[in-house]
Design brief:
alpha+beta, Porin, 2 domains, 16-stranded antiparallel beta barrel, 19% helix
């Protein structure tokens, strides 16, 4: 820039001298002053231009920063429970969850979910810190997408959508805890394909369960078999498929199948299949949810334990009077020791009746009466508050 100013100054001086054949001392002095003033004005113009350029650069950087921030999504949910069943009272901040996502482009996005359970984690503490989701999703075209990483298994009703304002009851239904081990996440890859409007198909290849082994004696407790992708044994992978129908407004029908060649991860060849089917229907204020789930485990050890067949179902009618208030009743029945090796009735029943109150669509207060029969007899009530954002 200084070099350019020097050239301009030289040009001005040369022009000034050329126009004055024999200038007097006064004329030379006036010419120098004029040239100095012109140089000063030129310098000021250049500095002003540089200032505007710097402001433009800062504005562009700020816009870029704002654009990057707009690609980030944050959210979460949580719920506090008070349970009083047969004088067994407890209060628990059951879940505190944070979501974070990032949209790289219109076709590529990232999503994650980090959870603290039971408020406090560590040695001898009741809670855990868990990474429940962390995957990249890519749209291959308008009808097909693929996700890879750690994701929720596409089975049942609550496993993928379980934020407190979205369901009735303080506690989640026991069938989707005992038979379907919700919340259930695995690592792998999953393809989603929209077959037609309101009809979709999911297929996943993912890590599998590993049922507990105590000194060579296996307990086929499905929920205890979750490895949670923590250095998970991957000798036996699982294959999950789901077909979902939502073409009729207010109606959702879905069925899932999962196959795993060995629930013991390469020891017993305990072939296992999970079958689930559910229906959700809402019209006006009336709502209905129903689900059936069954494990079929082909292993002598499971048969001896009475765990080769494990199944359960629930039916839940509800009525929502307005945006603020709704009532429900839910009947649950399940048996995770129902196999041929069991000579006693191990069926469990649980009934819940209560209400939800939403002061805001994303905040809910809950109350329900609970009655259990079977191996865990008991009556009582539950109170809860939950939120999502």
């Amino acid at each position: 820039m200084k070099f350019k100013l020097a050239l301009v100054a030289a040009a001005i001086m040369s022009c000034g001298v050329a126009n004055s054949a024999e200038p007097t001392n006064q004329e030379l002095l006036d010419l120098i002053k004029k040239q100095q003033q012109e140089l000063k004005e030129l310098r000021n113009a250049v500095e002003e231009s540089d200032k505007k350029s710097e402001e433009t650069i800062k504005a562009v950087e700020a816009n870029m920063s704002a654009s990057n921030t707009s690609n980030v999504s944050l959210g979460g949910y949580g719920e506090l429970h008070y349970n009083n069943i047969e004088d067994n009272e407890s209060i628990d901040f059951h879940r505190f969850v944070l979501f974070m996502g990032y949209e790289y482009s219109d076709d590529i996005r990232f999503f994650s979910e980090l959870e603290v359970e039971h408020s406090l984690a560590g040695d001898g503490k009741p809670g855990e810190v868990e990474l429940e989701q962390a995957y990249v999703e890519i749209d291959l075209n308008d009808t097909t997408s693929v996700k890879s990483g750690l994701f929720l298994v596409p089975v049942g009703i609550l496993n993928e959508t379980h934020e407190p304002p979205t369901f009735y009851g303080v506690e989640r239904n026991p069938v989707e805890g005992k038979i379907i081990p919700s919340t259930w996440w695995e690592a792998g890859a999953m393809v989603n394909h929209k077959i037609a409007d309101g009809v979709s198909f999911d297929f996943a290849i993912n890590s599998g369960l590993e049922v507990p082994n105590d000194a060579g004696v296996y307990d086929f407790n499905i929920r205890s078999g979750r490895q949670k992708v923590a250095k998970a044994n991957a000798d036996s992978l699982a294959y999950t498929a789901r077909l979902k129908y939502t073409a009729v407004p207010g109606l959702e029908l879905a069925a899932s199948v999962q196959h795993q060649s060995d629930l013991t991860q390469g020891v017993l060849s305990a072939d296992a299949n999970l079958y689930t089917a559910h229906a959700i229907y809402n019209t006006g204020g009336f709502g209905l949810r129903a689900l059936y789930a069954m494990w079929d485990i082909d292993a002598f050890e499971a048969d001896v334990n009475g765990q080769d067949k494990q199944e359960g179902f629930f039916v839940e009618p509800s009525y929502r009077f307005n945006d603020k208030f709704g009532i429900f009743a839910r009947y649950n029945e399940w048996d995770n020791q129902a196999g041929s090796g069991n000579l006693v009735d191990t069926t469990m029943q649980q009934t819940n009746v209560g209400f939800n109150y939403w002061p805001h669509e994303d905040v809910v207060f809950k109350f329900d009466l609970e009655s259990r029969s079977g191996a865990q007899d008991g009556n009582g009530f539950n109170l809860g508050v939950g939120y999502q954002f």
